[in-house]
Structure formats: C-alpha cells, structure tokens
Design a protein that fits this description.
mainly alpha, globular
Amino acid sequence: MNKFLAYAQLVRLPNTFTAMADICVGALAAIAMGLFADRWLSFLCLLVASTLLYWSGMVWNDFFDVEQDRKERPGRPIPSGRVTLNHARLLGIGLMLGGVLFAWLADLLREPGPWRSIRVAIILVIAVFLYDGVFKRTFAGPVLMGLCRFLNILLGLTLLGAWPPFWGWLIAIVVGSYIAGVTWFARTEATVSKQPMLIAAAGVMLASLFMALAVPALALQTPHDFKPSMAFPYLLALFGGYLGLAIWRAIQQPQPNRVQPAIKRAIFGLVVLDALLASALIGSPGLLLIVLLLPGIILGRWLYST
C-alpha cells in the first residue's frame, strides 16, 4: 500500500482528471458534430494516451528536480527513497512510450485523415522533455507548460479527424495560456513568492478567461449545429471570481500556505474551465464535465497536487 501511495504521489494522481477533461472537450465537440458514434474506441485510446503522457510529465518533473526537492520537499517519493531514481527513469520512459502507442491506436481505430493523434503525441513528448529537463527554471518554463496543455487539447480534437476549426485553436490557446499563468504563479510555491510575479501570473490567467469569451461567437460561425449556453459568460465570470479570491489572498500574503492552496484551486479549476468551454459549444450538457472534479477532490485529501 505504501508503495502504491508513493507512485500515486509521484504521478500526481488527483490531477489526472484535468488531463482527461481536455480530451473530453474534443469528444463533446465530436458528439455535437455527429462524428462520435464510430469513434468512441478512439476516444478511449486518447483518454489513456493523455493520462499516460500526463503521468510521464509528472515523473520527469520530479526526476529532474530531485536535488532541489531534497532541500525543499524531502518527503516526496524520490528524495525520500520510496521510489528510486532508476525506477522513476524507467517509469517515465514506459509511460511516454505507452502514451504514444495509445495515440497511434486512436488513429488506427478511426477513419484516416490529415489530423493525426500520434503526431500531436510525439510533439507533446518533446514539449514535456523541454520543460522538465531544460527550460523549467527559465522564462520559457511557463510557456512550455502552457504548450503542453495546448497540445493536450489538440490531442482531444484529433478525434474530429480534420484540422480544428478556429474555435478549436482558440480553446487550445485559452487552456494553454491559463496553465502558463498557473505555472508562473507556482514557480516559488515552496518559499515566499514575489508579489509582482504573482500579479503578472494572475494577469495571464485573467487574460485567458477574457479570450474564452470569443469561443461561442466562433462556434456559431461554423456550419455545425452548435448551441452555446446563454449562461456561459456569467458562469465564466463566476469562475473567475471564485479563482480570484484565492489568488488575491496569496498576493496579499505570498507565503506557501496561501500560494499553494491558490495553485491547487487553479489546477482543479481547469476541469471547470474545460466544462465551461464545452458549454460554449454545445450548451448546458457540456457542464457535465464538472463531475471529473469529484475523484480529483476526493483523492486530493490524501495526495498532494502541486
């Protein structure tokens, strides 16, 4: 049991459902476009691919951060010795290969088209390595993490089989920008953060929510029968307010005990954002994605998310 707990902490198990929510946005769009009936197996493969690639990113994150974690977070699985460096390396490689394999299976299980899952998965693998192993502590770190989420949204949209329309690219940009802001906000979560950095990161998150307001209009310009929720802008504003309360408290007192809860709220908030973006395409049924919050919140009581 202790071994399972160590590996569950290593892959940030509670956060897994945020990656799944990205893929589900593509599935809901496919349902609205009448493309899902013969692609549900492909969808399941994409869910597995996204999960494995997300887990691999978390493993490589701790693998490359082991020296820093020995000083700041000695209780984590690798610095505490519960998971060896060699096992972490093998697990990271295996998870990445598995993610690419399932993306390839997703391609095989649907009609061939120009928009291939395996290509997006391979680019995502490269982005993960560039973030975790090279640029994490540079100015490019948050940008690369945002790129990883951008690509995860696009991975879900490969279910459509064709190049994403404008609304698809915008959704990917919104989610990618949001996560770039969250990553920037979390850069010094283990120590006292600098207020100007937190304010700038919060501004990036806020800008992503403003960009999201254009999704319904772009969806209505397509030939598909999308029906955006009339409540979308109001729910988006409500979400921004809920997120902003924790962020404002962290900015006022940038201590770890304020910053880390704000980060946790922002990470789980990605599921809410995905659900809202889905509702901007297909209406209220898109909000059902919020159910993916439940397992993450339950698991988060025992496992850390940041």
